[in-house]
Amino acid sequence: REFIMKTIKNLKIRQKLYVLIGIAVLGLLSVQSMSLFQMRNLNNVNHTIVENWLPSLSTARNMNTTMSNIRLNETVISTAEINEDISANIGYLEKEMDTMEELLKSYQSTLLNEEDEKLLDILKSDWNSYKELDQEILKLVEKGNPDAALAKLNSDGVELYNAMSDALNNMISYNMEGSTLASEESSPTYSAANTSMMVLLIVIPVAG
């Protein structure tokens, strides 16, 4: 260390300036690298929120709404007295069933981890059971036995519907917590990146 200090003292003014500029440039490169690293981390966090957490949350909520529509159409079909009303609501019901299938595929494409996949598997299992129940209800209505269809809808149907509602609420809560946590994690990253940029703005004039 003493040798280095003596060497610096013995340097000419121009040589000392070169040394200082060299140190400033190295500092500039270091700060720049750190800034880029922090910005890349921030971009990764934001990408996860935008591409995974928020779409999954929206899809889970849409599935909840779709299940309510399915339940409503099944009730109308089981209580309607006019065949035209029954046929129309069967058409609406089929569309909602197709929508549910599409939403399940959409959620599958945004899975983040094993926990998320387990929640989806529970929902799929309940959904498969509900589809079987739906077919049984429609068959009873077609056979001219709407009272039995309504009774089934209000017994087994309520149990399965509640199970699916619980599964969907768990998925919604999971994605809300995940997006909130990811957002909180991005705050320190943003602060660090902002600090690096401020240092960079200070170092540039010095290096110049």
Please, could you describe this protein's structure?
The chain has 208 residues and is an all-alpha fold. 92% of the residues lie in helices and 0% in strands. The protein is built from six helices and no strands. The protein has helices at 2-10, 13-79, 83-108, 114-142, 146-154, 156-207. Helix 2 runs antiparallel to helix 5 and helix 4 (114-142) runs antiparallel to helix 5. The two termini are 27 Å apart. 21% of the residues are buried.
Topology:
Elements (H helix, E strand, L loop, with lengths): L1 H9 L2 H67 L3 H26 L5 H29 L3 H9 L1 H52 L1
Helix pairs in contact: 2-3, 2-5, 2-6, 3-4, 4-5, 4-6
Specify the biggest β-sheet. Answer: none
- Overall 3D geometry? elongated
Unreliable residue stretches: none
End-to-end Cα distance, whole Å, is: 27 Å
Supply the helix-strand structural class. Answer: mainly alpha
Mean pLDDT: 78
Compute the number of helices.
6
Please estimate the helix content. over 70%
**Radius of gyration based on Cα positions:** 31 Å
Total number of strands: 0
Instruction: Tell me the β content.
Output: under 5%
Pattern of helices and strands: HHHHHH
Which features characterize this protein?
208 residues, mainly alpha
What would you say about this model in short?
This protein is an all-alpha fold. The chain has six helices and no strands. Helix 2 (13-79) runs antiparallel to helix 5 (146-154), helix 4 runs antiparallel to helix 5 (146-154) and helix 4 (114-142) packs antiparallel against helix 6 (156-207).
